[in-house]
Inverse folding.
DNA sequence: TGGTCTCCGTACTATGGAGTATGGAGATGA
DNA sequence: TCATCTCCATACTCCATAGTACGGAGACCA
């Protein structure tokens, strides 16, 4: 099928190649979709290569955790933090970031449900993410405790979309998605204020 | 360990016994935790009993789907629907119901991520649940489209709690949980109104 | 008392994926 | 040219779990 990358050269596979292939498979098929044999076939090699670069499967999965954590913090720094002074615009950028990373994020969170190591990584990343969102809400004038709760609810509502998809359309509505309305709901103050 | 139910009699195991045991294990350990051998040991029998009552594992899992769907609609009817005319009180009861069914609900939703049949069942149940929540919001004066979106966000925020737990306390705060504040946020109108 | 039907124990096979042992091809340096 | 080192192919083993074959014990009926 995939006849050895088609570029004729590349007779050798690096450790990073394995990680990248596994990372892609993780985003597509989840944690249990990351199989040594399948990845080997995909890379045009056999398990012999894998066990040369890694002690065992757990070592690969740990590498994936690292890969994800670094990518995550890099994206956070590059995107949301420090760019614009407008907190509402920062929130919108966080939302957009979320849509981009949805597949791998979903895979990570499902994996974390039965893996303490993955759970640890996700928890750490969420800590930072919640900090940023809470910061935005603080700047928007919400009380500290209120901002904290709203940030948590926003994140949960987003992540909950993995488990309960929109009922009124299988694919995303091609026109405009209701995320602005969503954000508006989470930013609505009680009537008095 | 569990020496044959301790009640001495009961030399025979019914199909329903298998389903109940599997249902409990599903709530505890998730779909892949439902193993024939483990259940057999738990029931004090062997696989011979299982394959007498069921064609294969898939048949048991289908029975679990049915079991869950019926329990779900029964609870919905008994609890939220038709009891009180106050929509806000109904919403609170739906929340309370959610806390009770959290383990099996969580297991079902995780299972649905890699099983079309489970996904179908969850989708159906969510359709009804969202209908109820939307009805409450309608009665509270929200516009139809707005009520629909808010109901979806409430459900997602709840379900999202499975994937992103509260960061500031491992266990639930024993005093009072912040669900009233949560509900208040989802019911807040934009400033004008 | 013999026959059959229900329910389950025992012992097997089958399968899929992780992990291992070992050798071999190719590059590289002395 | 020989030795060694890197990287990988081949061919296994191991293990957990689903599924099968078959027989046996007990109830119940004629």
């Amino acid at each position: 099928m995939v006849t050895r990358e088609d570029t004729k050269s590349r007779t050798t596979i690096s450790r990073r190649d394995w990680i990248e292939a596994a990372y892609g498979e993780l985003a597509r098929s989840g944690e249990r979709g990351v199989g040594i044999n399948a990845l080997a076939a995909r890379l045009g090699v056999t398990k012999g290569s894998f066990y040369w670069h890694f002690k065992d499967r757990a070592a690969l999965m740990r590498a994936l955790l690292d890969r994800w954590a670094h990518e995550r913090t890099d994206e956070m720094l590059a995107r949301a933090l420090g760019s614009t002074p407008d907190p509402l615009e920062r929130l919108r950028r966080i939302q957009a970031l979320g849509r981009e990373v949805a597949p791998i994020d979903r895979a990570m969170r499902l994996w974390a449900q039965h893996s303490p190591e993955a759970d640890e990584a996700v928890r750490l990343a969420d800590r930072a993410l919640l900090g940023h969102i809470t910061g935005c809400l603080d700047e928007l004038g919400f009380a500290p405790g209120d901002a904290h709760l709203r940030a948590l609810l926003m994140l949960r509502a987003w992540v909950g979309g993995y488990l309960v998809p929109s009922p009124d359309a299988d694919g995303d509505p091609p026109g405009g998605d209701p995320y602005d309305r969503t954000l508006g709901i989470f930013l609505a103050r009680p009537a008095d204020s």
Observations:
- The CA atoms of residues 142 and 193 of chain B lie 11 Å apart.
- Residues 1-54 of chain B form a domain with the Arc Repressor Mutant, subunit A fold (CATH 1.10.10.60).
- Chain B touches chain A through 41 residues (CB under 8 Å).
